[in-house]
UniProtKB/TrEMBL annotation:
Name assigned to this protein: histidine kinase
Domain Histidine kinase: from-to ranges: 1-164
Top-level lineage group: Bacteria
UniProt lineage: Bacteria, Bacillati, Bacillota, Bacilli, Lactobacillales
Boundaries of the shown chain within the full protein: 451 to 626 of 626
Compartments, as annotated in UniProt: Cell membrane
Length: 176
């Protein structure tokens, strides 16, 4: 399916903003607190069209967002970017959480791998999320990778080839 990726990514992030608002409202009524976080969006203004399976890609991005939230400190900022290069779009999701140790960084995409069993157990989850995300993204011709500094945060990146004919820009102008 040919998808306007800017709209698609905005829609996913809107859903997380709505969930946060709902959780806050619930907690307020119950007299408890929930972790606060802010989602910041920095998007290219160019509309990027991509040929993807939107349901599967939503699942992959949802997991990365859920991880970012799970490992963020209270009041953390989650910065979501969308940029384009000549042939690819790159989206990134950066948190200010506890980060991933250098020795574990290559392994987080393996099935069932979880950094520091004790820390992860307390957070819940199976350790499958990122391996599924990698599978889904690579099946659609994309790549996923991560940059992280311990105690400073992690940034997950996804690149996907976009359709230059639909996206416009230089290619279109040359034929006008
Ligand atoms: P599941 O996604 O199946 O519920 P999970 O979140 O533990 O469980 P993955 O999403 O595959 O599994 O992540 C694997 C491991 O990578 C996590 O257990 C965690 O140790 C580490 N990790 C993933 N994202 C982050 C992040 N944003 N910050 C710090 N560590 C992370
Ligand atoms: Mg996960």
């Amino acid at each position: 399916e040919l998808v306007n990726f800017n709209e698609f990514f905005n829609y996913i992030l809107d859903r997380f903003d709505m969930l946060l608002a709902k959780d806050r409202e619930k907690a307020e009524k119950a007299g408890t607190t929930v972790k606060r976080y802010t989602i910041k969006r920095i998007f290219t203004h160019k509309d990027l069209w991509v040929e993807i399976d939107p349901d599967k890609l939503t699942q992959a991005i949802d997991n990365i967002m859920n991880n970012a939230i799970k490992y963020s400190p209270d009041g953390g900022i989650i910065t979501c970017r969308l940029v384009d290069t000549q042939n690819n779009l790159i989206l990134s999701i950066a948190d200010q959480g506890l980060g991933i140790p250098r020795k574990d960084i290559k392994k987080v995409f393996e099935r069932f791998y979880r950094v520091d069993k004790a820390r992860s157990r307390q957070q819940g989850g199976t350790g499958l999320g990122l391996s599924i995300a990698k599978e889904v993204i690579e099946a659609q011709g994309g790549h996923i990778w991560v940059n992280s500094a311990e105690n400073r945060g992690s940034t997950f990146y996804i690149s996907l080839p976009y359709d230059p004919q639909e996206t416009g820009g230089e290619w279109d102008e040359a034929f006008e």
